[in-house]
Amino acid sequence: MNEPRFPNDEREDPWIVVQVSSDEHWNAYHDIRRAVLFEARGLIGYEANHPDDRREGHFPLLLLLENTPVGAARLDLMSPQTACVRTVAIRAECQGKGYGRMLMAGLEKIASQHGVKRLVVNAARDAVGFYEALEWTVVEAGGENPVLTKELRTRPQW
Ligand SMILES: CC(C)(COP(=O)(O)OP(=O)(O)OC[C@H]1O[C@@H](n2cnc3c(N)ncnc32)[C@H](O)[C@@H]1OP(=O)(O)O)[C@@H](O)C(=O)NCCC(=O)NCCS
Q1: 96 C-alpha vs ligand 1 centroid, how far in Å?
Q2: Cα 23 to averaged position of ligand 1 atoms, centre (Å)
Q3: Is the C-beta atom of 100 inside 6 A of ligand 1?
Q4: Is 152 inside any structural domain?
Q5: Contacting residues for 81 by C-beta, under 8 A, at least 6 apart
Q6: What average pLDDT is seen over the chain?
Q7: pLDDT digits (tens, 9 = 90+) for 17-47
Q8: Which of 86, 130, 144 to mutate to test the pocket of ligand 1 (most atoms within 8 A of CB)?
Q9: For position 36, which CATH number holds?
Q10: Which residue from 104, 140, 125 is spatially nearest to 41, judged by alpha carbons?
Q11: What percentage of the chain reaches a pLDDT higher than 90?
Q12: How far is the CA of 78 from the centre of ligand 1 (A)?
C-alpha cells in the first residue's frame, strides 16, 4: 500500500515520518501510545478504535527508524491555519536520543503542507521542557496540562 511519506530534508538519516494507513502501522501506532501514554503511567482503558484517530482532518503519524516504528503522534486540523498536536510518544527504550525531535520535525512538515501556520498542544506537565527545547512557547502555564504554541515558518515556494 502506498502511504504518504515525509522524509527529512537532507535525506541522510534513516528516519521518516509516515501517515498511518497499513494494518501493520496502525498496530504499531496503538502499541506505542498504549505502552507510553497509558501503561507507563499506570493508566488503563486505552481505546484502539477511538473515532478521533480516523476523523477527517486528523493525521495519525509514525516515526520510522530504518522501517522500525519508534514514535507516534497525531496532528488534528482545527481551523484552516491552526492544528493541535496530540498524544506524542516515543518508545520508552528510545527516549532521550533525539527521536522526539525527529518526530516533531516530520509533523511540522506535514502540518505546513496542509497550510497550518500555528500548532497548539495541551502538554503533559513533565513534557513542557521538551516542547520548549523545540521552540514552543507556553501560553497557559496553569492547570494540569499547560498549553503551548508554535508558529510555523513558511518557506518560499519555488
Ligand atoms: C516527551 C517525549 C516525546 C520526548 O521525546 P524524546 O525522544 O525523549 O526527546 P528528544 O531526545 O528528541 O529531546 C529533544 C530535546 O528535548 C529535551 N527534552 C526531552 N524530554 C524532555 C523533558 N521531559 N523535559 C525537558 N526537556 C526534555 C531534550 O533534552 C532535547 O533537548 P536538546 O536537543 O536541546 O538537547 C518522550 O520522552 C516521551 O514519549 N515521553 C513520555 C510521553 C510524553 O510525555 N509525551 C508528551 C505528551 S504531551
Answers
A1: 6
A2: 28
A3: yes
A4: no
A5: 115, 116, 117, 118
A6: 92
A7: 999 999 999 999 999 999 999 999 999 999 9
A8: 130
A9: 3.40.630.30
A10: 125
A11: 85
A12: 24
Quickly tell me which residue has 501556520 as its cell: 117
> What is the CA(133)–ligand 1 centre distance, in A?
8
- Nearest atom in ligand 1 to the alpha carbon of residue 122 is 48
Residue 129 counted as domain residue: no
Domain around 100: 5-117
Torsions phi, psi of 88, nearest 5?
-75, 125
The Cα–Cα gap between 125 and 26 comes to 27
Residues of the chain whose pLDDT is less than 50? 1-2, 157-158
Q: Considering just the CA atoms, what is the radius of gyration of the chain in Å?
A: 15
Residue 114's closest CA among 150, 83, 153, 147?
Answer: 83
| Residue 67 within a domain | yes
Structural domain total, the chain:
1
